[in-house]
Write a structure and sequence with these properties.
By secondary structure, the protein is an alpha/beta fold. The protein is built from 9 helices and 16 strands. The strands form 4 sheets. An 8-stranded parallel β-sheet has the order 3-16-15-12-11-8-7-4. Strands 5-6-14-13 form a 4-stranded antiparallel β-sheet, with no helix packed on it. Strands 1-2 form a two-stranded antiparallel ribbon. Helix 3 packs parallel to helix 4, helix 4 packs parallel to helix 5 and helix 7 packs across helix 9. Bound molecules: flavin mononucleotide. The site of flavin mononucleotide has 27 residues, from strand 4, strand 6 and helix 8. Flavin mononucleotide binds next to strand 4, strand 6 and helix 8.
């Protein structure tokens, strides 16, 4: 398979492991043992978070629900681990696969601080997560930046102040069911072409709900309403639709990374044909581990070879 260039990152092939899979250095080591071409660490926040305790993940077969609430060891952990890892443990990353870091701030300035700090520790790119739906406070669910033009602009403004001009910044969006809102947010991002080099679509579909046969909600923890982010196979058609719409609005220099429901080589090919430069796998990797990426890549190579014209004898 041909290598690809995602916003200046040389990737051996388009299949990455996406955010939500690597919260600790031991998760990262496992991900680097797969043949994925790059790994997204995080999402990480400025302070460490324990997340929501209880039944926070449900595998429903063709879909998954999660309401983890962004558990992660925080910026200081990764400030130390990332630099140490990249400088001293290269045996565990012999191919020097690019490491991206996904960040979530609770203010625009925090997004800027997280991006700057992780780039200083040699992260190759930052993915600004605008879409975590599972943060609930005493006043209810926190706003999701993907759906707020003012928040998108304020965060991009703060990040542009915090990082150098030539850094690789991506934005990860939630899925939009209102096409006009998708256009509005895409046009806001387009104002930051140059800063934003790729858009990742899509995060989980917010506030889905599932119950066990006896009526108990599948997602359940203290203070939970049972609502959770939807991922897995059920998200593929949604992700493809988001990608296709975004491709028609965003300027060409902003590349697209497809994520949502990828568990086969055919899924990858479908995203690439819809305009993605690269893709990320999350739920399937969480469910199957290394076997997921092995199987996806084996099938992708076969499909790519089949679609190439045969050399004449
Ligand atoms: C358990 C779990 C945790 C996740 N955590 C994050 C996260 O921390 N940051 C983020 O940007 N997306 C997170 N996501 C969303 C995924 O990165 C991805 O966008 C979404 O699940 C759709 O892809 P998939 O169908 O391959 O899972 C998480 C998803 C799952 C299932």
């Amino acid at each position: 398979m041909k290598p690809i260039n995602l916003a200046g990152l040389e990737l051996e092939h388009p299949v990455m492991i996406g955010a939500g899979t690597c919260k600790t250095i031991s998760d990262l080591k496992q991900a680097l043992r797969t043949p994925a071409s790059a790994v997204v660490i995080g999402s990480i926040t400025a302070d460490s978070r324990t997340g929501n305790g209880g039944d926070v993940y449900h595998d429903g077969g063709y879909f998954s629900l999660n309401s983890l609430g962004l558990p992660n060891p925080g910026m200081e952990y990764w400030r130390y681990q990332l630099r140490y890892y990249i400088e001293n443990v290269e045996g565990s990353n012999p191919e020097r696969k690019p490491l991206l870091v996904s960040v979530v701030g609770f203010t625009p300035e925090e997004y800027g601080l997280l991006a700057k700090t992780m780039l200083e520790q040699k992260a190759r790119a930052i993915e600004l997560n605008f879409g975590c739906p599972n943060i609930w406070g005493t006043e209810g669910q926190k706003p999701i930046p993907s759906f707020r033009r003012d928040m998108v602009r304020a965060i991009l403004e703060a990040v542009s102040q915090a990082v150098a001009d030539d850094t690789c910044i991506g934005v990860k969006l939630s899925p939009f069911s209102d096409p006009d809102q998708l256009k509005e947010i895409a046009r806001t991002i387009a104002d930051y072409v140059g800063l934003v080099q790729f858009v990742t679509t899509t995060n989980t579909f917010p506030n889905a709900y599932a119950v066990h046969p006896d009526g108990r909600p599948c997602i359940s923890f203290s203070g939970s309403s049972g609502l959770a982010g939807l991922s897995g196979k059920a998200m593929k058609a949604v992700g493809l639709g988001q990608l296709q719409q975004l491709r028609s609005i965003l300027p060409a220099p902003i590349q697209l990374v497809g994520v949502g429901g990828i568990s086969s080589g055919q899924d990858v090919l479908d995203y690439l044909r819809a305009g993605a430069t690269a893709v990320q796998v999350v739920t399937d990797y969480l469910n199957r581990g290394k076997a997921s990426i092995d199987a996806i890549l084996t099938e992708l190579v076969e499909l790519t070879e089949q679609s190439q014209p045969q050399a004449s004898a």
